[in-house]
Specification:
Two copies of one chain form a homodimer.
Chain A: E1 5-11, E2 24-30, E3 39-47, H1 51-55, E4 76-83, E5 93-96, E6 103-106, E7 112-113, H2 130-143, E8 150-153, H3 159-170, E9 174-179, H4 182-190, E10 196-199, H5 205-212, E11 217-221, H6 226-232, E12 236-244, H7 262-267, E13 271-274, H8 284-296, E14 304-308, H9 313-321, E15 328-332
Parallel strand pairs in A: 8-9, 8-11, 9-10, 11-12, 12-13, 14-15
Antiparallel strand pairs in A: 1-2, 3-4, 3-6, 3-15, 4-5, 5-7
Helix pairs in contact in A: 2-3, 2-8
């Protein structure tokens, strides 16, 4: 075959605060020939997720940072274009972790074949993938919403938050979503059937949240921190559960107040628990079964925000950290 | 019968910071005659517990405050001296919640008869009562120590802490106890078989704690807060559990830093959960069965620190808040 050029986005430098274009560099490099056992993957979709901001920093976290000059990491859906591995054939579509690049070489480890007939393959990066599983696992293991309880989630038009609210409704709870702007709020109520949606940019946001939760808050699914947590904290009921899967408001270095004190945890018997979705990997098939069923029955809806071409990834990522996306942020890297 | 005078300790005023003698008042009052269905209780033992400091304040908590001029609340073991209730006979010994007084009149609600042949009746206020159950329930439901994990508890010579460490050992974990002074530390290691005991007054306390936990901390049973929590926080392992049942270092109004941030909870996937023992009331018989067995077999030991006479209660209580007691703090109100 003719030589294939791989276009990739590498970490050019570590950001101070919000990442800028100068922290990324786009490169074209030649791909080596395949060895026995290897396959060549062409990226169809790249997933952009808030956790990637953490990988750009050098501090301790639950995963190693991306090294400067290395390819940015990320989940992908890819097509096998050449295979020297007996388990994969050209044309297979797989869920992979190829990062921000147009091609990747893999030995097959960690890949999962997708069936394009079951659902659009991009859903493996969203509602049927890591974001959907994060919502499901956090509610299943920590949030545990009961009928008529009130569940609050921020970034509610995003892929995790929209799944949290819809699953909460399916469990019989009330869902209150927080999002940025009137369009997202209308989508939450009209399309996803949240009970209430609140614009966090409203000057009376905290009062609106209080009015939306007349019986207090039983589950606060924490993915943003900051001002939302400050408004939530005084509304938490005794025995409230706070699954903590993200703090996007802090990722760019904003100062962090601590509205949940040890005293409030004690007196109100709160359960505050951090998790990342891989902690519950053993439950993935349970999730997939339940969520696929809901999707097929139209009980769960999803929305994607698709940037075109690998060159658009840095800008789309920076926008997502500021909430400019509307739906699961993807990059269509190749039409396949 | 001749008229009986009841001597009682009432809340004279609300303390600012540490309670002083001026916050209590001792009164002698006449007891009314019994109505049908009532019983007269003579207090044998009064339990003094840290939670009582919270009841002296007016702020919101998980229980209503004691009103000024009302009898201080508290758990008691009492003898029935007169009964007009068919369920109780003179001579019965019961667990009651009669408060800081020598006599009380009850309609029988909430009383539990004790069998003096099974265990000394004072244990119903300690190792077989609320403190022991607090230790057992916090570990059972939140701490969940596994074999070879490291469990750390402060106030370890007290009734909750000593039970936490001994139960942790019986579950196969390592127990590291923190206490004030050499005598208590020697007791923890020599009598209760903790693996390590550390004096929190040592200038190099934090370094000693680190050395005592070479594999980090998996369960921190939180009952003190403050400097101990600050030393514990950097040693917590990923997936550590922090049952929060008390913050005695803050009860007198000390400033509260928050060494456990939302970020540390997220990144380390900590579970931080407040509880009070009544949340798990349904498990009380399970506790009683297991703990009675351990006590009978000599696998759990306990120690009592007994003040003599109701007049000694305020001083004993103030001393307990400063850690001057050595063992479960009781007041022998009457020899019975």
């Amino acid at each position: 075959m003719t030589e294939i050029k791989n276009r990739r986005v590498v970490l050019a430098s570590r950001p101070q605060g919000a990442p800028g274009a100068e922290n990324f560099r786009i490169e074209d490099v030649a791909l080596p020939a395949l060895n026995d056992g290897e396959i060549l993957l062409q990226t169809l979709f790249l997933s952009l997720d808030p956790y990637m901001r953490g990988r750009m920093d050098d501090g301790p976290s639950y995963a190693a940072p991306v090294a400067v000059d290395d390819v940015m990491e990320g989940g992908t859906v890819a097509k096998v274009v050449e295979s020297r591995n007996k388990d994969f054939a050209a044309g297979d579509v797989v869920l992979s972790y190829s990062g921000w690049q147009t091609y990747a070489i893999s030995n097959g480890a960690g890949l999962r074949k997708l069936n394009p007939a079951l659902a659009p393959v991009s859903t493996a990066l969203g509602v049927l993938g890591m974001p959907g599983f994060t919502a499901w696992a956090g509610l299943q293991n920590i949030g545990q919403p009961k009928a008529d309880e009130t569940v609050v989630v921020a970034a509610a038009a995003g892929p995790v938050g929209s799944a949290v609210g819809q699953i909460a409704k399916l469990r019989g709870a009330r869902a209150v979503g927080i999002a940025g702007g009137a369009a997202k709020c209308a989508y939450l109520v009209n399309d996803l059937k949240f009970d209430v949606a609140i614009d966090h940019r409203a000057p009376d946001f905290a009062e609106q949240l209080k009015a939306a939760c007349p019986k207090g808050i039983d589950v606060y699914f924490e993915n943003v921190g900051g001002a939302v947590l400050e408004a939530v904290a005084p509304l938490l009921n005794d025995f409230a559960r706070v699954p903590v899967c993200g703090l996007i408001s802090q990722y760019n270095g904003a100062s962090a107040r601590q509205p949940l004190t040890m005293r409030s945890i004690l007196v109100q018997r709160l359960r505050v628990q951090g998790f990342i979705v891989s902690d519950f990997a053993a439950q993935y098939m349970d999730f997939l079964g339940e969520m696929s069923g809901w999707l097929k029955a139209g009980q769960v809806k999803y929305r994607e925000d698709i940037a075109e071409g690998i060159d658009a990834a840095p800008e789309a990522f920076m926008g997502m950290l500021q909430g400019r996306n509307f739906g699961k942020q993807l990059v269509r890297v190749s039409a396949g």
